[in-house]
Specification:
With 117 residues, this protein is mostly beta strands. It has a single domain, classed as Barwin-like endoglucanases. The chain has 2 helices and 8 strands.
Length: 117
């Protein structure tokens, strides 16, 4: 049996930009992507702690070290700059593999979005 489990999570990052005129997606600082084992075009779930919005989109690689978290296109209407969001990705795996799987959870600095080491 295959089940879907959380693979990665960026817990409580701050939205730095919202670009309604972009085609869609979320732009994430490449340092944050690397820390959470996320890749460009990967599907992610977004939860906005400030307003309760929940939605899906895909990742675009952002400038390394910028702290950028930018919601693009229609998703820009679901957040405000400064909102705190959680970004989660999931993976399909065998039930037995999932029992022992440990997701990567990153708690960046919620002011700068820098990876805390």
């Amino acid at each position: 049996m295959m089940i879907e489990v959380m693979k990665s999570k960026l817990h409580c990052v701050r939205v730095t930009e919202a670009d309604l005129n972009y085609m869609g997606s979320i732009t994430i600082d490449e340092d944050l992507m690397d820390a959470a084992n996320l890749i460009a075009n990967e599907k992610v779930h977004i939860v906005d702690n400030n307003n309760g919005e929940r939605f899906e989109t895909y990742i675009i690689k952002g400038e390394r070290g910028s702290g950028k978290i930018c919601l693009n296109g229609a998703a820009a209407r679901k957040v405000q700059i400064g909102d705190i969001i959680i970004i989660m990705s999931y993976a399909m795996m065998d039930f037995e593999e999932a029992r022992n799987f440990k997701p990567i959870v990153i708690f960046p600095d919620s002011t700068t979005n820098k990876v805390i080491k």
